[in-house]
Amino acid sequence: MTIDKLKHAMFGAPFRTSQEHEERLDKVRGLAIFASDPISSNAYATEAIMSVLIVLGSSALGLTWTIALAIALLVLIVVFSYIQTILHYPDGGGAYTVAKDNLGVTPSLLAAAALLTDYILTVSVSVSAGIRALTSAFPELIEYRLALALLAILILTWMNLRGVRESGTVFALPTYAFVGGVLVVILIGLARFYGFFGLTPIIPELHQIQPDHTFTSFALIWLMLRAFAAGCTALTGIEAISNGVAAFKRPESKNASQTMVVMGVIAMALFLGISFLATHLDLIPTEHESILSQLARTVSGTGFMYYWVQFFTMMILVLAANTGFQDFPRLASFLAKDGFMPRWMTNRGDRLVFNGGILTLALLAGGLVIIFNADEIAMLPLYALGVMLSFTLSQAGMVRLMGKVGRLKPGESLKTLATTIHFESGWGWKRLVNGFGSFVTGIVFIVLVATKFLEGAWVIAVAIPLLVWMFRSIHRHYENVAEVLRTRDLDEASLLDVADVVILPMGDVHRGTLRALRYAKLISKNVRAVCVVAGEEQRARLLLRWNRFPKTTAGVQLVLIDYDYRDVLEPVIDYIKRVNYNEYPGQLTSVVLPEFITENAVTQILHNQTANLLRNRLLHDHDVVVIDIPIHIHTPHEPLGDLDSPLTSYTTEIVTSDFQE
């Protein structure tokens, strides 16, 4: 089986570029792909609040419900803000595009760095949390959690490389099964708590946990802020749809904004339901069992419904990582298009997805899982910082945008860097809501940094500025490349001439070097074959073989270099440099390298790789052109294949120049 056939078997046949619109998502698949992260965060958001409050004793856990209501209000504001972002920036890009268009380059790079770190953590935390849900139901699997987490990342990577629509179809069932299962548990729990429908009431099991120690008023306020900030993990992933608007079917903005509304309703219904029941059923956060697992077990026992919730909790937590797999490559492609990330990040693979971004994310997230041994609790202090910073910058950018809208008159429009804005009624209260949301998420960001800094948040606080520095360094490099390659005001006479000399390094006279000599003589009349000799015996043998082929060696200057050391590359490189810089300064010198190409990578390592070493040494020498002459060992020519197949059908246009001197 050829490599191409193996690739097609694993990832599917390539799509045509013109098929991109066919691979876009409807709202059902779009919700499954982009909303799995905010929906799945309900599996641990309530627990995050309670884990902070528990230091005040079990009586303080009643505050969970009040804090959850405040977080739900903030979610409502953020969802509203991102709906405005979707409608005004239909090409996607989310916080990065909004900040670039309204706040400037540095804020946009901060937003991008924050989101990229958040997407990496989304994959690591979601997968680890999913494996924890599995080990909560099957404790005997705890010792294998790292291997299971890495396997989950590998499967997600494979699925995403197969294409957006296909992964959306696969991920839809677990997402909707989780939502349905948890909603059933919440409804049954509410009915049993209030005694509706004649169901057996739930009698809460009272737990008396005393406070760790006495807290001052300031410490109490600080703990409340910490609990609120911890619960804001429920907001993670909300921005995902705004980044991937272009992935939806037409009309993109309408479908994306409607999906955003449905996502917000579902996420908050689950969050408030879990928080209410966890508070009123006196559940206590523990290390060995999640709050959602306790809730399902308390409400429905350990029967079918419990294992349904646990299984699909595990599934959606793992699949929530797919939000990162969708948005990390897209955001990286936006940055690459603007010159802040490697250009290859803009390349789409056979299945019209950004392969480079997907693989990069998989490697980074996998490394993080290994470092933290698939412990999502240890990674949570790093989580949510990036998303809160991006929320703050995005909403601040929308405040500026609404200010521009307010300066327009009815019927007027204004072209900005990334969009066209029109006058719209209600811009004043929209600006006010965005401003309030930016202020609150900014406060949450500060609280998260302050409270989690020593617990690991310092990593993100350092990583974001480093990423911004990396973006700017990449951009400077591309600016330098553009300056070197620019053709504006170019005088063709200033282009380098090609020196009429070809140098052929060789170790012996054989079929490969003779073939290379014939090629060299076609492109120059001044061909020099260079060989390093270590003694008279080698010299005599070389001259004997050289003189056996007078037709090929005729007119070629044989340069023999006596050298009494083992590194034969040094004298060859020294000779090439002397010819290049002394004999033909300011011109291109050609070097022809015969190179063995064997049947496979295993047999390739049996050769000493001299050609590779020489090529790498010459790469950094100015004005040296290296030409490879392959010498194939037992590799017959293969036919091109069916020219009528989709992979090889194309049109060819030949353009000739009518210019004559």
Description:
The protein has 661 residues and is α/β, with parallel strands linked by helices. It folds into 2 domains: 25-477, Amino acid/polyamine transporter I (Up-down Bundle), CATH 1.20.1740.10; 497-632, HUPs (Rossmann fold, 3-Layer(aba) Sandwich), CATH 3.40.50. Helix content is 60%, strand content 7%. It is built from 24 helices and 7 strands. Strands 5-4-3-6-7 form a 5-stranded parallel beta sheet, with helices on both faces. Strand 1 and strand 2 (420-422) form a beta hairpin. Helix 7 packs across helix 18 and helix 10 crosses helix 18. It starts with a helix and ends in a 29-residue tail after the last strand. The mean pLDDT is 84.
Which fold name corresponds to the CATH topology of the largest domain? Answer: Amino acid/polyamine transporter I
Share of residues in helices: 55-70%
Strand line-up across the major sheet = 5-4-3-6-7
Question: Any idea what the radius of gyration is?
Answer: 32 Å
User: Segments where pLDDT lies below 50 for 5+ residues?
Assistant: none
DSSP, total strands: 7
Q: Architecture of the largest domain in CATH?
A: Up-down Bundle
What's the number of helices?
Answer: 24
Q: Could you say which structural class the secondary elements and strand pairing correspond to? A: alpha/beta
Total domain units: 2
Please, what is the CATH homologous superfamily of the largest domain?
Amino acid/polyamine transporter I
Tell the overall outline. elongated
- Termini separation: 53 Å
Share of β-strand residues: 5-15%
Quickly name the level 1 CATH class of the largest domain: Mainly Alpha
Q: What do the pLDDT scores average to?
A: 84
Largest sheet composition: 5 strands, parallel
